[in-house]
Design a protein that fits this description.
By secondary structure, the chain is α+β, with helices and mostly antiparallel strands. About 35% of the residues lie in helices and about 30% in strands. The protein has a single domain, classed as Electron Transport, Fmn-binding Protein, Chain A (Pnp Oxidase, Chain A, Roll). About 25% of the residues are buried.
Length: about 150
Amino acid sequence: MRLRPPSAWLIRALYAIGFGPLIGRLLLLLTTTGRKSGLPRTTPLQYEEIDGAIYVASARGAQADWFRNVEANPRVRVRVKSCQFDGTAQAITDPSRIADFLELRLRRHPKMIGAILKSERLPAAPSRAQLEAYAARLAMVVIHPD
C-alpha cells in the first residue's frame, strides 16, 4: 500500500489558519509562476534545509508541474514555518546529487524516508547504487533565499 500524503488544499488551509510553525517542520509551501498561465501556483512539499538553502525533491521527476514552472521561471516564494521569503530556485536532475540528498534525508528521517523507499520497492537501507538508480527518476530543486 502506498502512503498517501495529505491533500494540497489541506496543507494550504493549515498554513492559512496558523499551523505553519507545526506542519512547517516537514512541509513548506512553494509558490511558482505558472509557465503557461503566468499565475501564482502554490504546492506543499517536503523539504530539508542545508547550509541556508532549501532543498525539495520531485517524486514525479522533471514532469511535475511545479518543477516545470521552476525551469521556466526560477523566481519563487517559500513559506516555511512562520517565515516567508523570495528566492531563486536551481533545477537539478543529476542522479548523484539527488542520491546525496536522499542519503541525508534517510539519516535525518529514517522511518519516514524508509517507508517512502519501501513503497518504491527499495530496502529501507538501500545501497548507493540503488539510491542512484532511484534518483535517476527524480528531480530536485535547491532554493537560495534572496
